[in-house]
Structure formats: structure tokens, C-alpha cells
Predict the structure of beta-fructofuranosidase.
Amino acid sequence: MTMFGLVAQAEQNVAKVGAGRYRCRYHLLPPVGWMNDPNGLCFRKGTYHVFFQYAPQSAEGAGIHCWGHYASPDLLTWKYCGAAICPDTPDDADGAYSGSAVAEGDRLSLYYTGNVKHKDKPYDYISDGRESNTILLRSENGYTFGKKQVLLRTADYPAEFTRHIRDPKVQKTDGGYTMVLGGRLKGDRGAVLVYGSADGEKFSLREVISGREKFGYMWECPDLFTLGGAQFLCVSPQGVPHEKYKFQCTYSSGYFSGDACAENFHEWDTGFDFYAPQTFFDGSRRILFGWAGMPDVPYDNQPAVSEGWQHSLTLPRELVNKGGKLYQMPVREIERLRGEEIPLSQDCGCYELQLDDVAPGTKIVLSEALEIAFGQDCVFRFLSDAGRGRTERRADVRVHSARIYMDVSLCEIYLNGGEKVFTSKLYPQKNTVSLSGSCKAVRHVMNGYTINY
Ligand code: FRU
């Protein structure tokens, strides 16, 4: 059977998995199995395309690692279009890893990393034993793809790098195309490789960016864009030491405003489950999707795994540059999912909760599981095992307002109009809300996306 056949075979389970109690209703999930990074985000001829890292054969990420594909005219009604890239050549044998899309007229070009692991002897897969091929696939209709073309192989990357180089993010620029790749330098320092190209196929190295001092050992999933007159380099660094308000998770992700140094790095999210985001421009706004998940964590998602799936993407978030800081709020389309107003005491697992005029000392408990204490800073604390081992996170912000989106087993909390965001999974038994202290609270039911599998 072909790889595409094996994916389709795993997807025969889609109705059973789709009936899971903890499935989110207004977030993109794997049809079956495992999802990680958003890939290939773009807007092509009136359609949004969202590809994603997908392991359909296992909710824990084993088996085939391919790209899944959703398409939508409005970010609310989605069609699942099947696997777009499968690891079916020697150049990507161990996974079609993360990458990006460029949409130009009819043409859609996907750039990704073909991961190859040699198995003839034991390797550390850092300094040896691994290939990371940068591969291009083109489509003229947005849905079916032509022949894979390897643009860069291990021997083409600079010698100062280990074998960890991946996640091409390509964009059209005035003079041609720019590509950023994430990497790990020898000596275990994270870095970004910046390439340029006139035709989108022949790329040459322009620059390696790694900052003055070491900032983590590996930078995954880079992104580079200009917004509000400033340029932002985004990375997902691994190995940055934990601090009280920063880098609280196993790995982090954020952007440098200005030079690539620790002082200029701003994390996207303070929650337990956010990593490896990607952005794109849809003609009027820059939109970010993150992976609502995190690798190598001391907590789990067993309730979802036992339903045959794990992880999701975040809501699409519009980015706005406010004085060099990027604010994030869900795109305005999400407001169209808002249903009737309901009291805090009603048991309802899909809701939006708007808090205003939040006085210090106010506390709110979501779904009898997650307490949020607003004071000089903001503390998120799990009160029950609905957190599956998640404990506490802190955001260094005095909160005046919050927009909370709860979607069955995922919440996204936007503080002060998107100044800080907290994303976390939770598996509650009951979905009431309680409040002490002083603030204005308005709660609405949220309706789900329409998704056709
Ligand atoms: C980030 C990441 C990427 C890689 C992909 C593989 O979560 O590790 O660097 O391309 O996941 O699924």
C-alpha cells in the first residue's frame, strides 16, 4: 500500500475519534492521531490553507509523519483535504517535517524538511546520522502536488552547524525570495540561517544569525516578517534556562524585536501548551497559528489520547505592532461563533468569557479546575487533576481585562487586549465558572467550526 493509502486507512476511524468527549469544537484538530506544528499557512485565491504536522497512525506521534491539510474560505468553515505530503522518498524517509508555503497566482509552493535518520549503526543524531533535506513541492491547483525537488542537502549547509537544520520559512520579497532555516551550531547554540534566491529554487546563504551570547542550544521553526515598519525574527528556542516569569515551559517560542539577543526576546505565550507557531499575511493582516501543544513535558493528555487523538492548533490570531511589542487577538471572524449569553453557573464547555474592570485581588475559577488570580501579576493554578500534572504559571502583567475562550479541553486567555496570552489544555468534569472579587463578567456560548471530513 502507498503511504497515502496507509494514511487513508488510519482515517477510516475518523467518525469514532470525532465522537470523543474531549474533542474541541472551534479549534483545528487532527482528524485522527497526532498533530503538531502548523505548516504552509497561506491565503491563495480566496482560500486559507492550513497544513500541519500529522501522525495519523498514533495519538502519541508514532508511525508515518506527514502533512495534513485543511482549507477554508472564511477561517470558520473547514474542509479536510487529506494528506498533502507523505514521507515516501529516500530524501524524507523519516518524516515530512515542518515548512511553509508561498502562494503566487495559481501556483502554491511548499517548502519543507525531509528528515532522514541513518540506522546502520548507533548515532547521536545530533552531530551525525541525520540528514535534513530542504525540499520543494509545487501545485497549480492548491490541492495536488507535483514531484519533490531537493533544493539543499546536508553537504550544502555551512560546516559550523550540527545535523540539526530544519523548518524552512520562505517568503516572496522584492528582489526574489528569502528563506530562514532553524539550526543548532556546533557547540550547541541556536541559530537561524538566512538564504536568498531569485527564482525560489536556487538558494544561497546570506547570513547566520545567532546573537551575541548563547540563547538556547537549538532554534526551531523560524519566521521573519515586517509589521508596522519593524522587522521581527521569530524562533522556538530549546534549552533556555527557566525564570519566574519567562521560559517556564520545557521549550519556548517568541520573537526578537531588534537584534537577536535575550533582552529583545518576547515570548508569545505564558501557558503550558504553546509551541512552534507560524505566521502569514492574508493581504490585509498578519495571522499567527500556534501548535497548542509542547514536546517533552512532565504532564499529559491521556483523556484525549484514549479517544485516539492528541493536540490542536490555536485560534488564528491577528498580530498588531504596538511600539515594538506584538499584541495577539483572535481574528474578528471568531466573534461570529458567539451564541447566546449564559450565566457563570451554567455547565457549558464551549464559551467565551469577557472580563472588564478587573480589580486587583479578583479570582476566577474556570471549569472548577483552573484558578486565575489577578494581582500585581497574574497567576494560573490548576486546582484539580483536570490539569493532568500541569501546575502553575505566572504572567508579569497587571490585568485590566481578559477575553477567555474555553473549548472543551483547551483554553486561550487573552489579557489586556492581547498584551499577554495563556494557552493550556485541561480535562474538566464540569464547566461552570466562579468569581470572587470585583470585575464585570459576560459569558456567551461559543458555536463550533463547521468541518467536513
Ligand atoms: C517543532 C518540530 C520541528 C520539526 C517538527 C517535526 O515542534 O520539532 O522543528 O520540523 O516539529 O514534527
The first strand starts at residue 33 and ends at 44.
